[in-house]
Amino acid sequence: MSTKVDFSKVGFADFQRMAGDANLSRYEKIGFPDTYRKGHEQDIFGDICAKLTNLSRTEMRVLDIGPGCSDLPQYLIDLCAQQGHVLALMDGEEMLAQLPDSDAVSKIDAIFPDCPDFLAQERGCIDVILCYSVLHYVFDEGCVFKFLDHALDLLSPGGQMLIGDIPNVSKRKRFFASDTGIAFHRAFMKTDESPDVQFNVPDTGHIDDAVMFGLVQRARNAGFDAYIVPQGENLPMANRREDILIVRS
Q1: Low-confidence ranges of the chain (pLDDT < 50)
Q2: Is the pTM higher than 0.85?
């Protein structure tokens, strides 16, 4: 039986503890109820690959920041082996221990960007950076602009970075203020009441449109192409999360 976890209050340290908890599913270990990820991760990976087109090439250098231990990193490990990529997985030691070892995979026990040796060695050399369902924890416990700046510094010419599955409270509000969102809420909550949505109020502790556009603007000002892109409609949280795609020319 799974241990009850308040997923709204977990942080980096909690994930390392949760990684070794045999009572948690592999989805709960990365901060999701099973219903949000079980049966969806193949579709999620397909959406990732459609955006990170360098993954379809061969002999790329790939970095996954905060891979966790669900199906997604295994899909990436398998794809990288198939395409001859060199893959680095960066996460806490306890989480990395849940993933298989491979000669073509480097496991780096670090919380990005607190990895000075890696940053120095790989500057301008990484062809693909994936950071999925991680940015909101950086927002809570670190500095998103420091995180972004160091990641951009790693990208090779033509390199691509996907900061994926970002919970945007502004997008969430727009959805739940719509007829579709109201119907979704009523069906999910089994209620006749409409969701409580308030615009033009501070959303302390949450990523909003201002943060999303700020990250895009910072990347563009640094000379990169950057875009806010939607998730595929078949993904479980596409109505309230979105991605940022960054490309170095």
Answers
A1: 1-2
A2: yes
> pLDDT of 84-131, one tens digit each?
999 999 999 999 999 999 888 999 999 999 999 999 999 999 999 999
Q: In what order do the strands lie in the sheet with 105-109?
A: 105-109, 86-91, 61-65, 126-132, 155-167, 241-247, 225-230
Tens digit of each residue's pLDDT (9 = 90 or more) over 55-77: 999 999 999 999 999 999 999 99
144, 203, 193: which is closest to 173 by C-alpha? 203
SS3 15: helix
φ, ψ at 159 (rounded to 5°): -70, 155
CA separation for the pair 230, 244 (Å, rounded):
9
Main-chain dihedrals φ then ψ at residue 113, nearest 5 degrees = -100, 25
- CATH 3.40.50.150, the chain: domain bounds: 7-164+207-247
Tokens 């899909």, residue? Answer: 75
**Rounded to whole angstroms, how far apart are CA atoms 217 and 137?**
21
Please name the amino acid found at residue 27: Y
DSSP H helices, the chain, are 12-19, 34-37, 41-51, 71-83, 93-96, 116-121, 135-141, 144-154, 169-176, 179-189, 209-221
pLDDT at 90: 98
Cα dihedral sign, 17-22-23-27: positive
Superfamily of segment(s) 7-164+207-247: Vaccinia Virus protein VP39 (3.40.50.150)
